[in-house]
Amino acid sequence: LFIVFIGFTPRVVDAHILEQNDPIGAVLHIDPDDDPVAGKQTAFFFEFKQKNGSFDLSKCDCSISIYYGDNVIASEKLKPMSDRNDMGGASYTFPSKGMYKIGIYGTPIDGAEFSPFSLSYEVRVDRESASKESEYMKYVILGLVAAGIGAFCFVIAKKGKKKK
Predict the structure, then answer these.
(1) pLDDT at 15
(2) How far apart are CA 53 and CA 24, in angstroms?
(3) How far apart are CA 96 and CA 22, in angstroms?
(4) pLDDT: is 58 or 84 the higher one?
(5) What is the DSSP letter of 60?
(6) What is the pTM (predicted TM-score) of this model?
(7) Is-contact 79 61, C-beta < 8 A?
(8) Could you tell me which residues are beta bridge partners of residue 105?
(9) Residue 31: closest CA among 43, 39, 18
(10) DSSP for 61-125?
């Protein structure tokens, strides 16, 4: 009985991870469903926290870098969210499955009262999107099945007419 339940253990998902570099911290949100898919665009949202006050992304020169191994594969400025000063976002399409590191780097501007910071998140990409070729093959197979069913119905209809 114990062996049967081994395969049914729930998968632990590290969603909404808070990383801190005093006094700044940020919670990472990933769309879609906190489970990125290789070959599909992934959106990242960072909800910043500041121990000694209210964090304002407009007073931060903040950037995001994405690493595969030790190599930076993408880097850009963090874009502020339209209605919240404490949230920033970016998007990226992971090229393949694997472990990636997301780095957030910030330095104060316009008199902001915090020290430069860096935050790091490990992100596992376990799924791949279906390629266009496999999508095409689905339609080819579906067409062949439909043609086969049509031919089968035609043969049955012909045999029915001969018996009468």
Answers:
(1) 58
(2) 10
(3) 33
(4) 58
(5) E
(6) 0.68
(7) no
(8) 63, 118
(9) 43
(10) EEEEEEEETTEEEEEEEPEEPSS-TTEEEEEEE-SSSEEEEEEEEEEE-TT--S--EEEEEEEEE
Instruction: Quote helix, strand, coil % in the chain, to nearest 5.
Output: 25, 45, 30
Which residue reads 């780095």 in tokens?
Answer: 103
Q: Comparing 38 with 163, which gets the higher pLDDT?
A: 38
Distances (CA, A) of 17 to 76, 77, 156: 21, 21, 62
Task: Write out the two tokens for 102.
Answer: 């997301």
60-68/98-108 β-pairing:
antiparallel
Please compute Rg for the chain using Cα positions.
26
Tell me phi and psi for residue 59, to 5 degrees. -105, 25
Please, which residues have CB within 8 angstroms of residue 94's CB and are 6 or more apart in sequence? 36, 37, 38, 39, 42, 100, 125
Is residue 14 predicted with pLDDT exceeding 70? no
For strand 37-38 and strand 127-128, is the pairing parallel, antiparallel, or unpaired? parallel
CA–CA distances in Å: residue 65 to residues 51, 78, 107 = 24, 10, 15
Task: Say if CB 67 and CB 118 are below 8 A apart.
Answer: no
Query: pLDDT (tens digit, 9 = 90+) per residue, 115-131?
Result: 999 999 999 999 988 75
Q: Quick check: bond before 23 cis, omega within 30?
A: yes
